[in-house]
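Lecture 7 notes: from sequence to structure.

We start with a single chain of 1023 residues. Read the sequence below before looking at the structure.
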Amino acid sequence: MAIGDPERATQDRVIGLMCGGTSGQTGGLGWRYLGDWHKREGNANIEPDLLRPWLTARGYDQDVVTKAIAELQRAARMDGLKLYEANRVTHDMLRYGVQVTPGPGEAPVTVRFVDWGNPAANDLGVAEEVAVTAKNPKAYHKRPDLVLYVNGIAMGVVELKKSTVDLGEGIRQTLDNQRPEFIRHFFTTIQITFAGNDMQGLRYAAIQTPQAYWLAWKEDSAIPMPLDRDVSQMLAPARFLELINDFILFDAGIKKVARPNQYFAVKAAQEAVQARKGGIIWQTQGSGKSLIMVMMARWIREARPDARILVVTDRKELDEQIEAVFGNTGDKVRRARSGADLLAALADPKERVVASLVHKFGRREEDELGAMIVEIQRGHIGAPVGEFFVFIDEAHRTQSGKLAASMRMILPEAVFYGFTGTPLLRSDKRTSLEVFGPYIGTPYRFNEAVEDGVVLDLRYEARDIDQRVASPGKIDAWFEAKTKGLTPVAKATLKQRWGTLQRVLSSKDRLAAIASDIIMDMELKPRLKSGRGNAMLVAGSIPEACRLFEIFRGSGSDLAGKCAIVTSYKRNASELTGEEAGMGETDKQYVYRVYDRLMTDLATDEEAYETEALRKFRKEPAQMKLLIVVSRLLTGFDAPTATYIYIDKQMRDHGLFQAICRVNRLDGEDKPFGYVVDYKDLFKNIETAVEDYTSEAFDAFDAEDVEGLISNRATKAGEDLMTARDAWFGLLDPVEQPKGDAEVLTYFSSPGGWAEDPQAEEKARRRQALYKLAATYARAFAAAAEDPAASGVNDLQLAQYRREVDHAIALRDAVRLHSGDAVDMKQFEPAMRHLIDTYIKAEETEVISHLDDISLIDLVASKGAEAEETLTRAMKGKRENVAEAIENNVRRLIIDETPVNPKFYERMSDLLTDLVQKRRDDAIAYAEYLQKIAELVRAVKAGHGAEYPAVMNTPGRKALYDNLDQDEAHAQAVDAAIRETAQIGWRGNKMKERMLRRRLAELLEDDAAVERIIEIIRTHDEY
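Now the structure, written as tokens:
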């Protein structure tokens, strides 16, 4: 091959690779050359002269063969069908065969057109220049470069271009051929279409796939040239037939062929299934995880007659999505509506695929799980029937706890597979390994998916809203008036609940600033303004979501009627019980009022409202421009139209990464990135999440570690229980005998009132210890009770410890009430909300990141040890101090010390002013930090942090300059020598490379230096 060779030469070489020549005998990869059909008459996608002999050789009667071919031709004629429908019919015929009745009264015979199990048993042929008559007589006849025939049935089409012509031209040519004016009828049997050239290799797709969604194959190979590599990998008969048989889906009007990551994930899973070994399949968010499930489930059912699939999720949206995905691809799914319905489905072998929420395995009451197991054992409920393979979606969330344990009790012989779009963090890995086993196949990470064009990269922007405290004196007066009569500890508890950063950030003024910001974006951001894209806003809580929703609805902007609120909230009047204190509206009452008024105005209910909102968001983005959410829709919600996600909620790890990936779906050329707008200073968390999910840091433990992990955990639970129990009884030791209620209350509380008790402060400290140790004992007991025997606890001890824990909790609650530490939060909630909304003022939003021209992957990739070292010591100190001040010091001082020393923050205004000031300080340091990182990224992307000489003005010259000791004259001389000597096509051409090496040897000190420079310039297209 040489650059610039004509297309004919490329075509001849591909035919040689596939067929070994033009002799007509099987050779090369296993195909035989059928000839040049440019002038051949009657070319069709079904060639009876090739199909009939093959079927006859398989032992079918001639009449049966004739009828079978006629059935296939009838389906392929596309009479009254669209191409998609006809192609689906013929695909089913090719996979499963057709039933033919030989004669009256005779049993039907299934005629199979392809031997899928033995590729070499088929007649595999390649014809070139296959001229096909167009439907429109005025249109030119079309002739695909190569057509791949399997037993005379056209199943693949290849368009080739010469090395200097972009393969996109071949893709467009193939798509043109599928138009009704041309040869659409020829494509009814075509399963995969290909286009390629020598420089870019092959791209592949199913019929009617837009150019932007054609795929590149990705697999290790020793073959250096892209086209030869791809042909050898994809057009080898076994791989070609396997892709058609096992990796094609018809999904709700779109024919799809597996991406490489999906193919290799399913192949690895097949090996695990054969060995009956579970494991975890990690495929990044948006890379087609649900379709992997479908392909894997189909293969399992066909390979194992008794196999049944149970798909378990933990979100209603995921449950609905699984049902839709399986249903759209033609697989019937039994979706369990209740626990009883689930058990009935598991006992019915006709239900091959069952989908369920994990919660259907029993509510959280302890007795129900045991009752379900007993009912099965007694035969009152049918036991599950079949060989079960359980798919757990979003495995990091549904992998542990009582519900997961109940699954294993009901399905003790099942094999479990965890599917996740995020890696398993270190805190999850022990449980995950015990439940599922190690990773299956190679994880498909976020950066790989971006590189492959499977998902979009993300752009990040941090925005700050400065806040200030207005009228400190009025705040103090309001607080003292509303808390008159409370003990210092009770006042401190109230401050602890309301004097938090989250409460400050939920002020009405600040939420209004966010709403104004988003309204402005809707008018300025091109994709949002055009109506092609829309956005999601993640609120910190359901009350905050309601406040934001009301602000948008009353804004008078275009968003007023084009936004919706989607949360887990469902109106239930019983939730209002105990809320009315006569002091104003509580948060629960407010949320109920907002939802009740909205549903009444629209004459609908929450479920119908959400269904319609999500339909518009996906299908009519110009009519539903913004969804306000809290935790719903942050996973398992695929809406390619979503372009911006605004985050005003503290998030990290799995939840944060899944949330930002709501905007990484492909949706046309006007959506080059997904955009993340951050109001909560989450950059460090986002940076960590993306770095985690693009690195090798989370590989699974080895399987042999499982036993030790389980043993260590159980032992630790037993030790923690004994430690907590000793500490609890140690706290009670000083209480006077007989340690009755009166003695306990005297020791911990002040029966005559705290103001008259000289030991009030000491008793406050004792009570803090009591509250803490009672909770610690309860948690330790719960951990050991999950597996008492392994924790070293027998039944008698378990019962005794349970009684002790119940008494400890009762004692804690009684002391809290008796001492006055307990505060009726409902009574004070309206007053404190008024204080926050009235006296915490917000300024206009300000962009503080200036990272809008840098992708998140570039941002993360630029940050290694070297980049960290370039941060000044002062900058590092600021960043660390800010994080500690906000995340540790404030929380520790308020939560831990205030109840012990109520004077620590005696005035409420001091507390609020301190919090807001820390917020302001954090934003300033944060902006400086982000600016420094942005500078580092831009320097790295430019190739070097320092200035270059003016003549070093290309990437290649800069590389030479850096690698030749920054000697400008030497770098210029080497650059000139390369440009004079290197001939077109020198890479891989021994003679041309030898000439270049000889010339460089004149300028460089030794052979090692020559090789180093050769390898450097090999990657630069300018040479």
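Residues 780 and 799 are 14 Å apart (CA to CA). Keep this in mind for problem set 3.
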